Amino acid sequence: MANTLNKAMLIGHLGDDVKMHYFEGGNSIGKFPVATNESYTNKQTGERITTTEWHNVVVRNKLAEICEKYLSKGDRVYVEGRIKTRQWEQDGIKRYTTEIHVTDMNFLTTKKDLNSPKASQSPKSSEKPKQD
User: Which end of the chain is flanked by fewer CB atoms within 10 Å, N or C?
Assistant: First the structure.
């Protein structure tokens, strides 16, 4: 099959504040973890069980700056992007990490929205900051 698709869509909560890295030439990268949950009931015990999956999210340039300004730990976001795996060597051991490189996202709820009397100062949930 010649056509392929690499797309991830997540709705979850930030596990930490956005960590920014700036480069010469004005480019920037923001990174933050997003937690998604899955709940089910154990049929034998009737106990409700929730598992959490952590996703490493990467945003670039203007979108990274917007995320740094408006998002903080605990905020709920919708993230859409491509899955990418990076590899490096540390102390002679090959290391791998999988990341979601964002192409589109929505801020669903932010603490800054809830705490500020003027919600118009931050992006509304219907706004879609686009990736540069």
Answer: N
pLDDT of residue 56: 97
Inter-residue contact 51 to 37 (CB < 8 Å): yes
Please name each of the domains of the chain with its CATH number: 8-40+48-121 (2.40.50.140)
Using DSSP's 3-state secondary structure scheme, residue 77 falls into strand
Q: Cβ distance 79 to 85 under 8 Å? A: no
Q: For the segment 61-94, what is each residue's pLDDT rounded down to a tens digit?
A: 999 999 999 999 999 999 999 999 999 999 999 9
Which sign does the torsion angle of CA 38, 125, 99, 69 carry?
negative
Task: Say what the pLDDT of residue 122 is.
Answer: 44
> Distance between CA 127 and CA 100 in Å, rounded?
20
Q: Find the DSSP H helices in 19-130.
A: 61-70, 111-115
Q: Give the list of residues 6+ apart from residue 15 with CB closer than 8 angstroms, or none.
A: 32, 33, 34, 35, 54, 73
Residues in the chain: 132
What pLDDT is stored for residue 121 in this prediction? 45
